[in-house]
Give the backbone structure.
Amino acid sequence: MSAPVPPGAPRQQPPPPQGYNPNAQRAPDSLAANMQNMNLHRPSMANSGPRPPPFGQSPPFPSSRPPPPGAIPRPSGPPPPSTWPQGRPTGPPMGQQQPSPFQSRPPPGSVPPSMAPTGLAMPPPSGAPPSGARPGSFPSSAPLNAPPSSAPTGFASNGPSPPFGGATMPGGPRIPLPPGGVLQQPPLGPPSAMGASRGPPQSMRPFSSSSGVSAPSFPPQPVSGPFSDPSQGVPPFSGPPQGGPAPFGAPSQGVPPFSAQSQGVPTFTAPPQVAPGSMQPPRMYGMPPPPLSHQQPTTISHAIGQGGSPMAGPSKIDRSQIPRPIPSPSVTLHDTRLGNQANPPPPATTDYIVRDTGNCSPRYMRCSINQIPCTVDLLTTSGMQLALLVQPLALLHPSEDPIQTVDLGEGGPVRCSRCKAYINPFMKFIDQGRQFICNLCGFTDETPRDYHCNLGPDGRRRDADERPELCRGTVEFVATREYMVRDPMPAVYFFVVDVSMNAVQTGATAAACSAISQVIDDLPEGSQTRVGIATFDSTIHFYNLKRALQQPLMLIVPDVQDVYTPLESDVIVQISECRPHLELLLESIPSMFQNNRTAESAFGAAVKAAFLAMKSTGGKLLVFQSVLPSLGIGSLSAREAEGRSNISAGDKEAHKLLQPADKTLKAMAMELAEYQVCVDVFLTTQTYTDIASISVIPRTTGGQVYYYYPFSALSDDPAKLYNDLRWNVTRPQGFEAVMRVRCSQGVQVQEYHGNFCKRIPTDVDLPGIDCDKSIMVTLKHDDKLQDGSECSFQCALLYTTVYGQRRIRVMTLSLPCTSNLSNLFRAADLDTQFACFSKQAADQIPTTPVVLVREQVINLCVNVLLAYRKFCATVSSSGQLILPEALKLLPLYILALTKSIGFKADGRIDDRSFWINHISSLATPLVVPLVYPRMMAIHDLDSNEGDESIIPQSLPLTSENISDDGIYLLENGEDALIYIGNSVDTNILQQLFGFSSVDEIPTQFVLQQHGNPLSKKLNDVVDEIRRQRCSYLRLRLCKKGDQSGMTFLSYMVEDKNPTGGLSYVEFLVHIHRQIQVKMT
Ligand SMILES: [Zn+2]
């Protein structure tokens, strides 16, 4: 069989015979003889010049080399655009200078822990918002890079055996309080404005929900819990709360979640609290629980007493009084501990600056409830979910201190000899420092001799404030030999590009090559970084990039069933040796294949072949795919079409389509993970590609799917592809990682959720881990906790930096335990609960009918509110719907979730699969906007002159806010839609987009900067959103009246849906009714 030869490139030699194995060849000559000599056609690519903005469009960012969309930490304050050019914090490190996440910082003592730095004064412990509440912003030029480090030098080794040995063991004393010291009590009082002169005003307007809160969620697996019997919505109340009334009798379930006939118009009786997130002073957990009124519930009462009268229509309701996310324009300053107590973090969706005073930053690890219920019964009664959301490499705010690196020499990090927990601020030293008690398992250990230090009069080690590992919630230890299975590998980036007919003709191949070519310079520098490239259609084409060769040579691998690969040393080459070759090649590929008539795509075989080449080192495999894989290993069928034609199968058929087609790709994924290859797939497609099957590979290897549908070279897809790729390779990340979470006795990890490979129950393997990836860790009780004590969680991530350093990042969070239900509701973290909840719902969708998942989701919400209503809100009539302050947005988010893409039974299968996948590793701050996007008016950008923020105020998602003469921007962190009413002022249309009438609006669209202030403002808004979201949002224009307009309106989740979805008001009434039913 002779391999089809990609057209376009004259070849002097026939392809290698079948079965030819280049690896068996010894003589370099014979190898070369079997490669196809490519005639490279020079020009033809748009980007052959000196790195112009992608595709000639106006650069997405002001600088000529646009920073990756997330170059600056997501949730943080924006440096003004003018600082971007030099501000690219994530660019390739220069020499020793590394991005902050990997860098050590000044010696611990440099900030005397006993003094709160000026400008970081804390808000008052209680009472009204601090006067002049705005803490001010941070310096716009705040560099992300850490100051030069003077961290301890010298790598040492010591250390316990395997990085993650041992398991938590029972027994041993419990440590009620952490050793002090870490937590100096800062002066109380209103925050002094942080340098009023520093930098621009905060412009970010995240959804600041009210304080956090609870969305109980599906127990991942067969857990006892709300979801154990999905079909019936069993209430989570498995037993009576201590001292509480009897358990709820079997509530009359089976009420369809969306029985549209709601009754009794609720009227709003108590206005929602001001967003507690940013303004409310932290509560002190050591204090007696404040009266409930401290966190006043939101109460909505029925205008019509007994629910009997039909819904009188929403007109009676003041919609502006319904709980909604309240934008918080100011930045919150957050100390992780105050006065030796855990300080509950601000909502994940708000803008805040963290100071690590003992607990880790909430960016790295957040608990769904900021107090831990003492018993499983109490947790069950609350209806809430107990879980951690871990984002171990999360980006910091530019004003935050970088993580300190600790090198304890040859001994390595000090660890508990029983449970292997790492030394942390909550381990208690006793016996003049000769011993320490583990805060996780309670075991008493001998202090290693060279780590000994006497205790001061306060019982703390005298050096506690000088040692980051004894006073910080997050530190990074230099790993010793014991933590290495092998030497750290060089960073390897292997690009695989689809050149089948469809890919070439749609411009996807050219877009991919252009993007790769432009990011080559952004790859981590250093002589060790290596790259490789292959293309594929029905065969796989490798390229020999060795410098010695005049031109890159192509080797075709025709066998896509039993794949082999050329010599690794030929196809994966140090970047310094092959840059000119590589650039030439990337420039030539689109023209080489421009007449390709091969429609087949051997995706699986290409991945496998590239994997074989990378096997010895591991690394990143970036695959650009445009059609359904139809050939060779792991080929897939067009089962969507088959599924659609089989309508009688209904839901069952849809479920099959949302699950991987077979186990071939999963098996391959496991092998990739085992050899530390992390795969990202960029789907630039116009057809069904079976994301449910393909995504198994990135999900198992710590990678992700990027989805461009329908791909168009004329839209901003190529720009997004470039920016996504660039961020992919420049963002903080690590390789060959292993992660484990340890918990104090009484609680244990139930399960991990996210993109990783799991071989043993306790650890997750991450061939790749980056700053955007979040892992959910569900927890369960295995014993009672003691009221008043603290429960600790420690997440350890062992990984290799892109510069080949082996590190252990250790994050420790210690939270108070409580046996008081009201405390749980007060301490609920809405964003985290909702994130857990959404992730678990997404996991369920492929296997459970959507109707049931929706019902479960709503039941969870009802049960949480019911528990609060029944046990915590004592004085109110049954005519009122009472929402705990921290959870008041739960119904809104739940409603939005049930209307999101994943839940659309009639939606495109790939869209739903992508959504399910996307949410699995999505960071907490991005989950809410994904289901409840941000919408703003942009036709009147001129009018908010006095407004400090770049981004206009967001509007509730209801079509009542959309007028025919308006233009609106809606973004969910992934896509952005611009809706244009049909009677918009043509002058504004002209200024913003350059169209003279609505009719001229094209389907393909690239936002450009026109020479007027309005246009500039719109571009600024879009740039700012991209920066905040770390994502180059795809922009789409939507017109009233056509399909695009319908798409936009489908995001109006507060509206009644023509197909049966309740409006927000109706939903509140529905929830209230369910609660009333359960109360009786
Ligand atoms: Zn221990």
Q: What stands out?
A: The longest strand covers residues 806-818. The mean pLDDT is 75. DSSP finds 26 helices and 36 strands in the chain.
